[in-house]
Amino acid sequence: MTLTNRDIVELTEWRRKLHRQPEISNEEEKTASEIVAFLADTAPDMVLTGLGGHGVAAVYDSGRAGPTVLFRSELDALPIEELSGVEHSSQVPGKSHMCGHDGHTAILAALGRQFGRDRPARGRIVLMFQPAEETGNGAAGVVADPRFGEIAPDFAFSLHNLPGVPFGEARLKAGTVNCASRGMRIVLEGKTAHSSMPETGTSPMPAVSELMPALPALGRGTFTDEDFGMVTVTHARMGEAVFGIAPGYAEVWATLRTRRDERMAEQVAAAEALARKIAAVHGLSVRFDYHEIFVASVNAPDAVEHLNRALDQEGVARSEETLPMRASEDFGIFGHSAKSAMFFLGAGERTPSLHNPDYDFPDDLIPIGSRIFMRAARNLLG
């Protein structure tokens, strides 16, 4: 159940190779090819490519009846210029692995090496290298792919590194661990006019000035409440960048966030009703569209129990501190059809935060993360 020193060296170098050549959401074609090539020597029993975009699933089958256990990592990087200064820094301008998905991928590749040498005693292992986590469409695309039925799991597990938590400690709890969220774009349309005669047009300016404070006011409760809701205005634009035209068009962007998916539906309805009311008062048409939709990530008690047992067996300290989080994670959709759980693995208290331009995944987490997953897999499948 342990990696060799050579394994760790090679996995570390491979992780750094991925780090140098990041690909953002929905563009992970080369990263997917790298994974297929790296796992070739492990002789998986089935490899599915192009799942939900550029997703890759490698299956290690015992040939005996038993559950299917899926472990998931993410392929995508971020549109951020790297400023870490490490030798293996991104070689792609404006793109970098500032969330550690390269490290998560290396952890799953470590499982591939081990199951390549010794298949589970029963059931199947699925290593799911998922695209487009950052934009929220990756997991949904994978699950919607007709071929996902060939690997549909009974259990699904994932991890995410977490700066600010002592190195190698785990954070895990049953229930909600990541919020549901979605980006809402509100489009207001009126009529342009010459700026010397604004009264001949219909400007969205008064409506925008009302919406900006009214949307955040839709939030409800504190984060500890099950009915917690939050609206954050993230962007607005109005008219053209000229002085001679009174505007006839505007957009307001907001992120809606809740702890429960049911509460999200209420929040969407409230935000749309508010925008329609304000638009009507000012003689504007209004329409909506939604982007980066994340369901809540809810850890199933049975799956959490398996992870807790593995953490204890591997001597990894754990607590429920910092959970749940306001941030979103698209792993939650796997929990709609499987017993699923995600845990968070401390990257160090002084490690730069995720999505910061100076972040770099700590390589020493590769053997720790793979050891925890391997223990959970062997406990379930032998």
From TrEMBL:
Q: Which UniProt keywords apply?
A: Hydrolase
Q: Does the keyword Cell division belong to this entry?
A: no
Per the record, the domain of life is: Bacteria
Residue ranges annotated for the Peptidase M20 dimerisation domain, each copy included: 182-279
One Pfam family assigned to this protein is: Peptidase_M20
- Give a yes or no for keyword Hydrolase in this entry: yes
Annotated PANTHER family: CLAN MH, FAMILY M20, PEPTIDASE T-LIKE METALLOPEPTIDASE (PTHR11014:SF169), PEPTIDASE M20 FAMILY MEMBER (PTHR11014)
Extract the NCBIfam families matched here.
amidohydrolases
Name of this chain's protein: Amidohydrolase
Source organism of the structure: Mesorhizobium australafricanum
